[in-house]
């Protein structure tokens, strides 16, 4: 379904702002109108790269040719910039996290609805192939009743020494990586509500914000999803792991396929005990090919340009936006509950409207 090309202006020409400009310049549905940044050196870099630079944010908003404003600034600035852009009649894409609280997000949603403009957040990791393979593993039926899903991102460089380490800027790993992994988990476990959660944050290299966390989401039906981010891990655990009553699936890292082992025959006669260094075990004796089937879910095609394609179609009324307001609010409320669980050192129950995305 074709649509007219949209002009996009990017606010903030740092890491993600530069990412957006590069992708917009390669886009088949968007054109780059220009950028604006409060730092003169970033504006100069943009000019050196042949990109038009607005003299002010107001000048950007006054440009009637601009259809979409993409906001790629520190997190605490998303709300005021997005509201001004939407009040000027522009569609808005905010970098994640969309803002810092559910109250702030509701204010942004209300302004979008009042002005009749598209407003969304850049959840680009819905296009990650490792996520897409695990979503397929959940839905393929080979694992039986799934009772655990684990998602991890682990590195060893500590929290970056920029705004990500400052509370006032919305730093910390829950808001940086957690927002992606929570959104992905809700896309994998699309058919169940979250009933409660427990979260424990790390402060290994940073006392001001979390530099890692372990978050357990308890879904209805007994499924527990572990989301874990660590910045002080020199050996990483698998990116994804999933287990059900009839099998398991694993993606070691984003460059590999998804390995699935499914049980063909549950009972096996004459199981030979395994001899370990300290004794025997029959309970943990490994299965063989007689009772299991092993196959792979291959890496699938994925094009992150589809995000902007969807927004352009949504502006023209030809498609529903992929990342919806209820989905944005659901992720935000889970992050807020995670912070509260860590503060209390206790399980936090969740209720209210639960939305799904596919």
Mean pLDDT: 93
Helix tally equals 9
Count of structural domains: 2
Helix % is 25-40%
> In terms of per-residue confidence, which ranges show pLDDT below 50 for 5 or more consecutive residues?
none
User: Which fold name is given in CATH as the topology of the largest domain?
Assistant: Dihydrodipicolinate Reductase, domain 2
Rg estimate, integer Å: 23 Å
- How would you sum up the global shape? elongated
Structural class computed from helices and strand pairing: alpha/beta
Order of helices and strands: EHEHHEHEHEHEHEEEEEEEEEHHE
What's the total count of β strands?
A: 16
The biggest beta sheet reads: 9 strands, mixed
Strands of the biggest beta sheet: in what spatial order?
A: 15-12-11-10-6-9-8-7-16
User: At the first level of CATH, what is the class of the largest domain?
Assistant: Alpha Beta
CATH architecture classification name of the largest domain: 2-Layer Sandwich
Fourth-level CATH superfamily of the largest domain: Dihydrodipicolinate Reductase, domain 2
Which range does the strand content fall in? 15-25%
How would you characterize this protein structure?
The protein is of the alpha/beta class. The chain has 2 domains: 117 residues, NAD(P)-binding Rossmann-like Domain (Rossmann fold); 195 residues, Dihydrodipicolinate Reductase, domain 2 (2-Layer Sandwich). The protein is built from 9 helices and 16 strands. The strands form 3 sheets. It has a 9-stranded mixed β-sheet. It has a 5-stranded parallel β-sheet with strand order 2-1-3-4-5, sandwiched between helices. A two-stranded antiparallel sheet has the order 13-14. α4 runs parallel beside α5 and α7 crosses α9. The chain is elongated, with a radius of gyration of 23 Å. The relative contact order is 0.15. The model has no long low-confidence stretch (mean pLDDT 93).
């Amino acid at each position: 379904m074709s649509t007219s090309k949209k002009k996009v202006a990017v606010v903030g020409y740092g890491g993600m702002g530069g990412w957006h400009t590069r992708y917009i310049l390669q886009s088949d549905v968007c054109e780059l109108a220009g950028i604006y940044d409060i730092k003169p050196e970033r504006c100069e870099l943009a000019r050196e790269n042949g990109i038009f630079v607005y003299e002010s944010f107001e000048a950007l908003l006054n440009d009637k040719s601009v259809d979409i404003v993409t906001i790629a600034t520190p997190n605490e600035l998303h709300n005021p910039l997005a509201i001004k852009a939407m009040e000027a009649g522009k569609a808005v894409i905010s970098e994640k996290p969309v803002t810092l609280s559910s109250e702030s997000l509701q204010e942004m949603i209300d302004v979008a609805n009042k002005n009749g403009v598209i407003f969304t957040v850049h959840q680009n990791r819905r296009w990650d192939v490792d996520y897409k393979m695990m979503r397929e593993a959940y839905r393929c039926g080979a694992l039986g009743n799934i009772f655990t899903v684990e998602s991890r991102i682990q590195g060893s460089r500590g929290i970056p020494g920029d705004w990500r380490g400052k509370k006032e800027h919305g730093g910390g790993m829950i808001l940086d990586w957690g927002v992606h992994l929570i959104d992905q988990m809700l896309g994998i476990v699309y058919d169940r509500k979250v009933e409660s959660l427990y979260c424990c944050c790390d402060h290994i290299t940073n006392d001001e914000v979390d530099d890692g966390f372990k978050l357990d989401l308890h879904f209805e039906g007994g499924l527990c999803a572990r989301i874990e981010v660590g910045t002080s891990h020199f050996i990483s655990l698998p990116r994804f792991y999933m287990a059900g009553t009839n099998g398991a699936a694993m993606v070691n890292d984003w460059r590999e396929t998804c390995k699935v082992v499914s049980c063909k025959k549950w009972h096996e006669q004459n199981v030979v005990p395994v001899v370990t260094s300290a004794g025997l075990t029959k309970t943990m004796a490994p299965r063989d090919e007689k009772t299991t089937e092993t196959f792979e879910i291959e890496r699938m095609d994925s094009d992150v340009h589809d995000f902007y394609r969807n927004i352009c179609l949504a502006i023209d009324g030809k498609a529903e936006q992929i990342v919806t307001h209820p989905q944005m609010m659901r992720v935000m409320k889970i992050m807020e509950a995670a912070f509260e669980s860590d503060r209390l050192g206790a399980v936090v129950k969740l209720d209210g409207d639960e939305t799904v995305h596919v």
